[in-house]
């Protein structure tokens, strides 16, 4: 059934939505970006390694296949790196709009690879989704004044990286067992993060990791362990186009948690944006559901 693969990708994206709240809580404890990001990927990698050790379903991989998977995992690490760098020079509300360009970028990439145009339903969903993203971000480009070009560049690079991550999950060695595939992809992500932040980590005191505490474990679980597993399971079955649209649920989850956990104020236009995003996610699946009901009448 396709619904279980759709649900897997949906829940994986929901898991990503938890991260922004956890990162804000870590920042309130005075933990710098380098420690937060590297700890997130290191802990997530250890969780996947432990899971793989107790998993019987494995395949013998060639060195070429291992390298392919690790290269496919690099975009995941780059998403966090580029997104955090964008926040240095631009507002978070603008950065999230830039990051969510991964949705249409992912659809375009899949169309180019498959050499076919997106359906009218997909295009309609994208338009609704982009409107919803701008509303849910709680701001607009006009209100931000002058936007630094370097921040915009990093934000767009984060979007491209996320789109490539989704595409890689759909295309690279999809026949492999989910846990084994996720482990090697996250290994590539970890190497990318340590390569970028390694020099900064050398100068960080060990007490900084103590300040991160359980936030690091939760970041590793919700940001590095759960999403790759669910994406590796569902994405090859539904494709990166629909996968990109489903992944947009991350923003509504982030908004809801900011209200519940961080006690932030969310205005009416943001809730309207959340509604549009949910609508954009539902539309691509309506036609498939009708087809399933037609094939399997009650």
TrEMBL record:
GO cellular component, as recorded: plasma membrane
Segments passing through the bilayer: 30-55, 67-86, 92-113, 125-142, 148-170, 182-202, 214-233, 245-262, 268-286
Protein name (database record): EamA domain-containing protein
Domain EamA: 6-137, 150-283
Pfam families for this protein: EamA (PF00892)
Keyword annotations from UniProtKB, A to Z: Cell membrane, Membrane, Transmembrane, Transmembrane helix
InterPro entries, alphabetized: AA-Vitamin_Transporters, EamA_dom, EmrE-like
Record's bilayer topology term: Multi-pass membrane protein
Family membership noted in the UniProt record: Belongs to the EamA transporter family.
SUPFAM superfamilies: Multidrug resistance efflux transporter EmrE (SSF103481)
Locations listed in the record: Cell membrane
